[in-house]
Amino acid sequence: MAITRRTAVQGLGIGAFLPLAPRLALGQPAGILMRPIPASGELLPVVGLGTWITFNVGDDPGLRDECAAVIAAFFDGGGRMIDSSPMYSSSQPTIGYGLRKLGHPKRLFSAEKVWISHPEQGGPQIEASRAYWGVDKFDLVQVHNLVSWEKHLPALIEMKAAGRLRYVGITTSEGRRHRETESIMASQPIDFVQLTYNILDREPEQRILPLAREKGIAVIVNRPFRQGDLVRQFEDGPLPDWRAETGARNWAQFLLKFIISHPAVTCAIPATTRVDHVRENLEAASGTLPDEQMRRRMIDYVEAL
Amino acid sequence: MSEWGTYTLSDLVMFSPRVYFRLVERYNQQFWPLQLVWIAGAILILAPAATGLPRARVAAFPLLAAAWLFCAWQFFWERYTAIHWGMSYAAGAFLLQAALLALSPAPARHTDGPASRLRHRGGIGLMLFGLLAYPCLAWPAGRSLASAEIFAMMPDPTATTTLGTVLAVATSGKRSWLLLPIPLLWCAFSGLTLLALEAPGVWASLAVIVATLVLLLADRR
Lengths: 305, 221
Description:
The structure holds 2 protein chains of 2 kinds. Chain A is α/β, with parallel strands linked by helices. Helices cover 39% and strands 13% of the residues of chain A. Chain A is built from 12 helices and 9 strands. In chain A, strand 5, helix 5 and strand 6 form a beta-alpha-beta unit. Chain B is globular and about 45 Å long.
């Protein structure tokens, strides 16, 4: 069997954290936990930045500046991956505004999506998204919610081969179409899969996450807090006495550490409008992470609340 | 397309209440004091139209058409589409309603049966609710008056005032029925959007729909 970068990374165990891995080229702050993208070995911080709802602020100058501050804090804290979609209305121009303000940080890992029924319009849509972001090319383009994936995926793979993007992926959310997602993961040469996974929505643990490890596919986790509902649901209750053993200071970090401690997860992408929250999220990507036994204990505690 | 069947209403509400009402505040600031002109103009024309003044009856539908046109252009097309791509379709629906109103003949005098009187008075009530009460709903919802929703500027009071006016001034003919579906559908969509946003005020849209249907049914008996 030929040894590729993907199989080599798998051999090392894709769950291996690399907090001290070389990051000088990107000026990566020390301490943040990183995981390799199985297809290439490239390292990604385990916490990224989502933009659903939070960055859709239209042309409101005050709110755009707030989002730009969130992006600045994200990069200051060692973040790399920002994820968006044409479905999110003005989120893309808001990202572009923030990136321009920061002089387009080299560390950016741009994750976009194609979301259109008519396959022939996929290319122009990606080009429009690229113009909004103001980047030369996207690092990752995913087929959003599997919309017309049969047509979009070959086009994305062709674009990757031509060097017009670096990675290809698919997305789903809120537990939709997992069977079809599995089938695509098993049969198509994709680099990333994005899906919803959190301490209460654990169905992906059964098949999709093991399949991702087996096939060497990076996993992006969306809706880690169920759009904030999980934090609101639990924040009135006490954190367990043993929370320090999880490395979490508060409920948001408790919930986030549960997700990123799963060995198949490459990156979780919580969305926020607040600088203190983005810092808090990135802090969860450092220090201790729960092991399997602790993860079980966290589930039992939350389910008993 | 099968993918669309997997979406829920909350998937299609892609902005926060804070962003939406800031958009409304900025919109109101940009046009102030045009809001007062719209309300005053509507009261001066629609109230006499409802009481039977012939000239006012002739002007009622053109005034409403202008309000729908303004709302389609300035609110939906110029602003709301920035945070919700689907609102370009709503702009089209509002333009269609403006055309229907502009092309509708001036309503004839109201008949005088008891059911018709109920529809007439209920219609005036809805009209006044759309013109005068809607802007004040910002208070109980915990928002400042800067984000008040005003006739012709915003879709909900425009739809409500239109439903009230049609009920109050139009006879129970089939032609007036053409003027009802778009405002009713908008009220339903608006109520569901507020529900998905968990924002207060859902009851207003739903109450307008119920009141309209009750008045229509009462008039048919």
